[in-house]
Amino acid sequence: MATSHVPSPCPWRALPWALILGAGALLAPSQAVAQADSIVVITGRGLDTAGVAGFADMPLSRSPLQASVFGSAQLGDAGVTTIGGLTRLDASLGDAYNADGYWSILSSRGYTLDNRFNYRRDGLPINAETAIALDNKDRLELLKGSSGIQAGTSAPGGLVNLVVKRPAGRIRTALVEAREPGSLGGTVDLGDRFGSDGAIGLRLNLATEKLEGQARPARGSRWLAALAADWQLGPDSLLQAEVESSHQEQPSAAGFSLLGNQVPDAATVDPRLNLNAQPWVQPVVLNGDTASLRWQQKLRAMGEGWRVTAHAMTQRLKSDDRTAFPYGVYDANYICNLYCDRFAPDGSFTYWEYISDNERRTTDALALTLAGRLGTGAIQHQFETGVQRSRHRGRFEDQVFDIAGPGRIDGSLQSPPSMGLRDANTERDERSTEWFARDAMRLGPVWQLWAGVRHTTLHRSSIRTSPDSDGGLRATHYERQATTPWVAAAAQLSGSSMVYASWGRGLEVDVAPNRPLYRNAGASLALDSRQREVGVKHHTETLEGAVTLFDIDRGQAADIGACNVADSCERRIDGSARHRGVEADVNLKKAEWSWQASLMLLAAERRGSTKAGVDGQRPVNVPEATLRLGTEYRPRALPGLALMAHLSAESNRRVLPHDASVRIPGWQRLDLGLR
Length: 675
Prior knowledge:
This protein is mostly beta strands. It has one domain: Maltoporin, Chain A (Beta Barrel), CATH 2.40.170.20. It has 4 helices and 32 strands. It has helices spanning 16-25, 29-37, 39-43, 72-77; strands at residues 67-71, 93-97, 105-108, 111-112, 119-121, 124-125, 137-144, 158-164, 171-179, 183-194, 200-212, 219-234, 237-250, 284-298, 307-326, 348-376, 379-395, 399-408, 422-423, 426-442, 447-464, 476-492, 497-511, 524-539, 543-561, 569-590, 593-607, 625-633, 643-650, 653-656, 659-664, 667-674. The strands form 4 sheets. It has a 22-stranded antiparallel beta sheet that branches. The chain is globular, with a radius of gyration of 25 Å. It starts with 15 loop residues before the first helix and ends with a strand.
């Protein structure tokens, strides 16, 4: 099924009346803003560093990789309230799935990020199959490209790291915000330090919002409550803890599909129409609870800069996933005559009722790290080593996925609910142990080398929630070990410019379903990825810029054979998806003005496939060109006022893997803001 991308109306953030209401709620507003901006100074971490890059103390302007850091102020000014909103700020990111009421699914450098394995929270793995609230996040970090240096298994596009707000002195801020087309919410951020010499710090974040989706009806609500604390046990010891609870309830928005062999014309489709709007549809409910504890101890006996860190986290997600799913044209006996995977040319389709209640996902993680600096002759090392243990569990009930009745793309038909026939779901378990070491070696004033390695041991299993007609539960289980290295070299051309080159490997694991259809049922497949990257960086107080050439090649799994009777199908590696491209990023500040520009040109193709007509084709849902532009004007005559504009543009996307003529047209979007 293809989803057409329709430019949405400009979301005006922080409308004047909302600013007036918010100002009345602020306590000492001028001091609050100053203290909020000073968080970076207090914590000693500016936006030129990113822990997700693996070298937390190394400025990004001097690191041999590409990463972006989006602070809470930048996210707020751009009206970004979800993970999916990052696509407006960085050209390397795209929407893989962006429906209202559901969790965001991103792509980076053309590869879809796995919500189970490509997300981190303060460096530890989390499950992003939920609505992630940003109200208590200090910044979002994006590592672009091969992620093997920081993750045992993950998609090669990159990693997203959520950095939680921590105590940072006295903070008193409140905000009331209205966003088009009708969302209204408020947030409170309170913090202070207590005790002798301010040894204990607390920070409280609260948020609530009435949600109104772009497609209607999609009304919902959300709230968040989060508390972070730290305790300076001594001059060399720090204990940090944080807890977060969140809730979101909102109907999702179903996507359109092909009308026969044609992509729907965006000019003829009502962008406000929600195909999910059936009287029996219930909202998607997403609940999340997360807590973490981190202890850091300086080891002065080993020398300056040495420290040991123990970090533990637990995450509990509960969701009720429900939708009226438009798919194909079927009769009451589940038979389709022609349009099995798309709508009919006249706009008719079949509604399927999908209900998967009480989904529970659990993630537990523990990391122990040792980091420090040492010298070996003329070489200076910035070294880190450690081990990470994690466990993921998914517990589900039988689901409803049954035909309800007919529908039309103009929303004129109301279908009755389905008979409610239930089908089995799939439960999953994973345990992993990852040993890692990385070293940044300075050879002199010009040259620097980086090297890292991560060894991962995986244990994964799955089983169905109820047996098939033959009594089987399609259980799978496999164990796998893999080592993912990464190396880089850089030359500092001047105090503000550098060039670098890097090479790395990553890993994903696929598994053949344990069904009679497959000759290799239950077999695991290693999807190796390799990345090469060359880049130039320039950094001054007023100008930041980078140009990067990258080449990523990732193994691709496919079903080979007739796949229509028992033992007629084999799941195996079928060539690769190679993505080569260039990225350019520029940030410029001059007097009252600031500009941001981000561009990605991508040549993506399938290679080495045994299937006819696949080789040389661009993957579906991947544009060749992506552009993001932003500007901000702060008039000196009106301190505190900012006028903002953001432009997003993308080229066309392919819809079908075997037919290059069917494409979603390119689009442009302009957002305006006032703060």
